């Protein structure tokens, strides 16, 4: 039976290596794909080589350091020492994502105006990027082939899209970053008999990541990406800050690592249904798009309040680029001086930062207390609240709006404590709901997102994985064995990259041979100049311990743990303005430490 073998790779260590001059490595051409006809999709592509858990590079990187923000320094700091060893868990693999090796060298550059030194790039490619003890970013411009895949992953995960990459080959058939003509989608059994088709439902980052991985793995059939927005995938985190403030334009948000992807894009195209029996996506207008394999990556929508004026130009949500443009225009038209923001999550807090930076009066109305409680817990949420209040934000905790009145010149809001707010504009930052309405009555479990098994295969209403259909990104709910068997959705940019890649691998291998998806979720935020970074799921923590710095200084690393039958489990690490120190804790997430006789914990405030 024809097959696409996975490229063979070598494991790497996760520790940074010294910079040394070394020549690039020539690239070997992967084995191309062969067409299939009658067998079900998950049986058409048997892989005889297992997907490696974390292929990385075996040798050092040449030294040609470029510096962001500071002058060059003669030597980079030694790697941060890891905390004491922990007991390895048997239920999951390494924290590093699976990468498809490249062999051609690439060239890296960093936009100094965009870079915020979050340190995500060092997490993805420590051989290429380093943060110095002084807080500046150092990187190597010319990256040899054995490190090219890690460098490209760093570009994909950069929240600000501050890194540009040139050269190399992202998938078989793409040469020098040049785009080949896209394959037109074809309907009917005649076209499918000669060429298989994979449909990616969703034009965001998770869909882009899955489509790119399919090409990297050697899939040469039709690849059709259906997106409901009229534009190519772009980075959403800057919408509430850098784009809204005007620091970044729309063209600067597009993802920069996968420009040569060979696919047919059906943009501005709505999906209204899924026919599992006939293996087809139903499009707006009555069209049907047959598929042999399907990736569901439709993301989420912004949540609204039922009592808020739906058609008022002075009440907006912000989830898409079009939403952010509407907020910009509406705030300008309203000549907003006072803005009310509903929601104490990351979106609400970051919107408050943007409005304050532009001199507006800001009232943050939050139903719960404190800020970011559901994400970071009460102790660290109080730290965020202090940062917001010192910046001049009027924070109203444990408060709701009971009445909305348009006055002609603005809005009058009555709070449940009796206070009345006169405001020019309201932005809703209340969270999200998964985009699954098009999947209702399809036979797939879609309560709170698309339910998946640990391999990312979609689960039907009877609890069985559906061959040939996977899900990825914000819309997917799956059990991460690194933590437990409870299915959860994760809404972070890096997670969308990694889950899209794993879902593509699982699609090609089928439910019986696919590996389990066991990532360490990572996310970040910036609150009035304070960088917040996290690894893991802080909401699972039962205890918080400050292991670096102090809460009082607002510069620290905190570990979150919980009790399990195997001992205390580290479920998350959160850093405030300590991106370098956080690196030492990422690989601990999910592991259990031996029980000690003393239950005392060291606390520093």
Provide an overview of this structure.
By secondary structure, this protein is α/β, with parallel strands linked by helices. The strands form nine sheets. A six-stranded mixed β-sheet has the order 9-8-7-13-26-25, covered by helices on one side. Helix 5 crosses helix 11. It is globular. Residues 1-88, 171-194 and 597-605 have low confidence and may be disordered.
- How many helical stretches? 12
Alpha carbon gyration radius:
24 Å
What is the SS-derived class?
alpha/beta
Strand order of the largest sheet: 9-8-7-13-26-25
Total beta strand runs: 33
Summarize, please.
This protein has about 600 residues and is α/β, with parallel strands linked by helices.
Topology:
Elements: H1 41-44, E1 65-68, E2 106-110, H2 120-124, E3 129-131, E4 137-140, E5 142-143, H3 148-157, E6 163-166, H4 189-194, E7 197-201, H5 205-216, E8 222-226, H6 242-245, E9 264-266, E10 271-275, E11 280-283, E12 288-290, E13 293-296, E14 300-302, E15 315-317, H7 321-333, E16 338-342, H8 346-357, E17 361-365, H9 373-376, H10 378-390, E18 394-396, E19 401-406, E20 411-415, E21 420-423, E22 425-428, E23 432-434, E24 450-451, E25 457-459, E26 465-471, E27 476-479, E28 487-488, H11 493-509, E29 522-527, E30 530-536, E31 543-550, E32 555-564, E33 567-576, H12 579-582
Parallel strand pairs: 7-8, 7-13, 8-9, 13-26, 15-22, 16-17, 16-22, 17-18, 24-27
Antiparallel strand pairs: 1-4, 2-5, 2-6, 3-4, 10-11, 11-12, 14-23, 19-20, 20-21, 25-26, 27-28, 29-30, 30-33, 31-32, 32-33
